[in-house]
Amino acid sequence: MNTDAVYEARLELFDFAVDSLGDAPNEAFLTDLFSGVTVPDDEVHPSLDEGFAALERFVEDNEDRPIRDVEDDLTTEYTRLFVGLRPVITPHETYYRDDTEYIGEGLAEVEESYHAVGWEPPEDYPEENDFVAVELAFLRHLIRRQRRGEAEAFGYERVFLDEHLLEWIDEFAADVREETESDLYLAAADIAEGVVAFEDELTAQMAP
């Protein structure tokens, strides 16, 4: 696989993880999924492989249903899992970390990582800046910079992985697997966990 194809694959995985965890999937997101999902034939990484399998099940089970019905079901489940008055999962780094209070001083440390590279989280994310989709979007931003030839972006990614995402993404993904039977959210959790593990291995080789 050539370098450009690797970048494209990395970004597509982050796009899926960010879009599926950032908010309840909308009609445009589902239309893209049902128009054709291509996953690797070979094994890639245990979490990614589980995520790809869950995504294929989701498409197979839902592609012939009215999209609005699928959207409604997913919105209900997303709200139950992540948003409701008493969500069963709180997808924030500072919630999972033992060394900071929820939305406490650890949030400022996450934001310092963003500011160090001049990145601002998109305004359409309604959550705090340690929200899982925001942290994944930050890595996607760094990958785009790597693709443009900015070698220092590997170093920034290496630090952010070590100091932030690797500290909690596995536990978050495990909670999602325990709390839902929705194949889309199982796929989102597995792919988020798997792509972070892949980036961990990659940046270990590439970071200065």
β-strand number = 0
Total count of domains: 1
Task: Give the overall pLDDT as a whole number.
Answer: 92
Radius of gyration, in Å, reads 17 Å
Structural class, judged by helices and strands?
Answer: mainly alpha
CATH topology: TorD-like
Shape: globular
Task: Describe the largest sheet.
Answer: none
Classified by CATH, the class is Mainly Alpha
> Helical element count?
10
Strand content: under 5%
Sketch the topology as an H/E string, one letter per element: HHHHHHHHHH
Distance between the termini: 23 Å
CATH architectural category: Orthogonal Bundle
List the helices and strands and how they pair.
Blueprint: H1 3-22, H2 27-34, H3 46-62, H4 67-83, H5 93-96, H6 105-116, H7 132-147, H8 152-163, H9 169-179, H10 183-206
Helix pairs in contact: 1-7, 1-10, 3-10, 7-8, 8-10, 9-10
